[in-house]
Design brief:
This protein is mainly α and 447 residues long. The chain contains 16 helices and no strands.
């Protein structure tokens, strides 16, 4: 215990906090788009809210993969920055822009062509009919979002995090305003209902991408990285190096978030009200998760800096201090979920049955907060030492081989309903957290 309060750890806590809190706000901004959509659409009706839940189950899956791939840039930039390699950092900026732009276009085309598969999941037809057009517009927003994320991860690798936070906050305020105008038709705008929500999100994300580009392009601090900038002669080797970290990082997020997304489908077999309640509880749990992922991103940068210097104790201090911080933070979130479980769902829906179900799910969410925080920081710390392949396998097994099958057993074989689905997901999160913590302890000792 004394070591965790030593001067080295105190310095590490401070460094991680100042790096993390803008990232936390930025990450929170991504998920707040869905939270705002869920809350404001919930004022229209339960069917519309269930449609948002169904479309977000696929959209969020693609969203986190895109964000995860962009994470391949960050530890490489952090390592190059620690060794003062300006040319390598400039090459990473150039390749990151290309990779993320192409990725955004491909993800849009993929899910646009696949959106009709929502008809195959045995969902209520009135929900599916609303979800498909909503999803198609949301996917169009993946293109500017991936471009924004490419620039954001580059600047975070250099430890510049605050402007991305401010841009994200501004875009979310814009999204709230546009939701108000386009969903309900205020101030002379057309009353578009559910579709007004997705067009508001798209416009906000275009503004985010333009603002982030302007910041990196015109700020004097980044001028040295644009010197001689050209898209010609892109390096296959550097592209492969980014993707070797980014693609597994994206898959790690997909395996976890995909498990919760498939849970939406399973709960849809129960009832639209259970599905809407799941979306309410998931929106709250996803909010704390994305905030914890900000600590994960900070851990990745700080561990990457120390790994670039080949300093074993620095790597371990940076990693373990992030674990301690996320445990404290998620512990407070768990307490909040329990204390306010009967109040928070009321912010999203007027339906008393939906509120009651969501309240019971929040109690379960409270208990897996610690596991969720440890596993996401574990992934970030391991990404900092470029260890991504085995962690990807761990997440696949924890969520898809153990968690989801047990969700089905608890929910439908044991008759626990929506709560049974969340029990299975909690089990998967706990297994992932333990394995990833042990993996970081093992890998960091061998540096």
């Amino acid at each position: 215990m004394g070591a965790l309060l030593s001067s080295d750890y105190i310095k590490s806590y401070k460094a991680t906090f100042y790096l993390a809190y803008p990232v936390v706000m930025s990450q929170l901004g991504h998920i707040m788009v869905g939270v705002v959509d869920t809350a404001m659409v919930g004022q229209i009706g339960t069917i519309q809210q269930a449609a948002v839940a169904l479309s977000n189950s696929l959209y969020t899956l693609v969203l986190v993969f895109g964000l995860g791939v962009s994470y391949g840039i960050t530890p490489l930039v952090a390592a190059a920055d620690s060794s003062k390699d300006i040319r390598q950092s400039a090459d990473l900026l150039r390749h990151g822009i290309v990779i993320n732009t192409i990725l955004g276009i491909l993800l849009f085309l993929l899910l646009f062509s696949l959106s009709p598969v929502l008809n195959l999941f045995n969902q209520k037809q009135e929900v599916v009919e609303l979800a498909i057009p909503f999803l198609n517009v949301m996917m169009l927003g993946m293109i500017p979002l991936c471009i924004f994320s490419g620039f954001k991860q580059f600047t975070e690798g250099l430890s510049f995090t605050r402007i991305a936070m401010l841009i994200t906050i501004g875009a979310n305020l814009l999204n709230i305003l546009l939701n108000y105008l386009l969903i309900f038709g205020h101030w002379g705008f057309p009353e578009m209902g559910l579709m007004g929500s997705c067009w508001a999100s798209f416009i906000a994300r275009v503004v985010m991408a333009l603002a982030m580009f302007a910041y990196v392009y015109y700020n004097r601090q980044f001028k040295q990285y644009w010197a001689g900038f050209s898209f010609r002669n892109l390096s296959r080797e550097l592209t492969k190096k980014i993707l070797n970290i980014g693609v597994p990082s994206g898959l790690q997020w997909v395996f976890e978030v995909g498990a919760f997304a498939f849970a939406v489908i399973m709960i849809g077999w129960i009832s639209p009200k259970a599905q809407a309640a799941h979306q309410v509880a998931l929106s709250l749990a996803a909010t704390t998760y994305m905030m914890a992922s900000g600590l994960s991103a900070a851990a990745s940068v700080r561990v990457g800096n120390q790994a670039g210097l080949h300093y074993r104790e620095g790597v371990r201090t940076a990693g373990f201090s992030a674990f301690i911080m996320v445990l404290l933070f998620m512990g407070c979130c768990a307490l909040g979920f329990i204390v306010f479980r009967n109040y928070l769902p009321g912010l999203f829906t007027k339906d008393q049955e939906v509120t009651s179900i969501a309240s019971s799910l929040l109690v379960i969410a409270a208990f897996f907060q610690l596991s969720d925080g440890v596993q996401v920081v574990g992934l970030g710390a391991l990404r900092g030492v470029k260890d991504v392949k085995l962690p990807t396998i761990i997440t696949l097994i924890a969520y898809w081989v153990i968690g989801l099958p047990m969700s089905y057993v608890f929910a439908f074989k044991m008759g626990l309903g929506a709560k049974g689905v969340w029990y299975g997901l909690s089990l998967g999160l706990t297994i992932a957290a333990v394995c990833l913590f042990l993996r970081f302890n093992y890998v960091s000792r061998r540096i």
